[in-house]
Amino acid sequence: MQLNIIQKITGTLVLESGLHIGAGDSEMRIGGTDSPVVKDPLTGQPYIPGSSLKGKIRSLLEWRHGLVLAAGGAPYSFKQLAKDENNSAGRDVIKLFGGAPDNAEEQLVSSIGPTRLAFWDCPLNSDWKREAADSRNLLITEVKSENSINRIAGTAESPRFIERVIAGARFDFTLSLKVLAGDDLLDTVLLGLRLLELDSLGGSGSRGYGKIKFAALKLDGTDLMKQFHAITPFNQTA
């Protein structure tokens, strides 16, 4: 097993609707929001954690490849693959994302090798901030009020205030892909990105939050958009 190269996929992640990835701050502030978005502690600007992208894309690939029930809803791991070693899709998912092995799967762990993907945190694109936000004195986040409807009284109840990064915001997207001898995993990575475009990122996707698209994707500086758009998530063999 030999590491041939570490490739870098870069691009722009564009928000098509407001994005909420929570900061995990449960403290209620007077005049503040109930649920702020995660922000860089140095710049105060919102960013997209690499862990949020990794978790969502892995989850979507597991659903697409029919791996979710085998793991009982937990991330698909070496334990499930050991019972179905010919599952090539499951093997690829573990190659890309890793899989919490234990001693029982030592031989399988050795045959698969290291986790191939590393997602980077995505900072706000500085050009977009300067040209689209700062030049018009736009705030980068908005506070959206929500509530529940009492079905009998027809009245709004339980108001809450959710902070979102505004639609149109752009983030610098980067991930690293380790390529070992014999690997052919790029299309699976692109499938995961296409599935994310079709679904949503962050919280409240069923209510219209977190719709995104990728632009200007490149692999080590070479344009990837044609190959990316050629991926048809539901016409491929799962």
Structural notes for this entry:
With 238 residues, the chain is of the alpha+beta class. The chain has one domain (3-24, 33-230). Helices cover 26% and strands 25% of the residues. The chain is built from 7 helices and 9 strands. The strands form 3 sheets. A 5-stranded antiparallel sheet has the order 3-7-1-8-9, sandwiched between helices. Strands 2-4 form a two-stranded antiparallel ribbon. A two-stranded antiparallel ribbon has the order 5-6. Helix 1 crosses helix 6. The model has no long low-confidence stretch (mean pLDDT 91).
Shape: globular
Major pleated sheet: 5 strands, antiparallel
Task: Indicate the low-confidence ranges by residue numbers.
Answer: none
Gyration radius, in Å: 20 Å
- Number of folding domains? 1
Strand order of the largest sheet: 3-7-1-8-9
Distance between the termini: 27 Å
Number of helices: 7
Helix/strand class: alpha+beta
Helical proportion, percent range = 25-40%
Q: Overall mean pLDDT score?
A: 91
Helix and strand string, N-terminal first? EEHHHHEEHEEEHEEH
Strand count: 9
- Work out the strand percent: 25-35%
Topology:
Blueprint: E1 3-15, E2 47-48, H1 50-64, H2 78-82, H3 88-97, H4 106-112, E3 117-119, E4 122-123, H5 126-133, E5 141-149, E6 156-165, E7 170-180, H6 186-198, E8 212-219, E9 222-223, H7 225-229
Antiparallel strand pairs: 1-7, 1-8, 2-4, 3-7, 5-6, 8-9
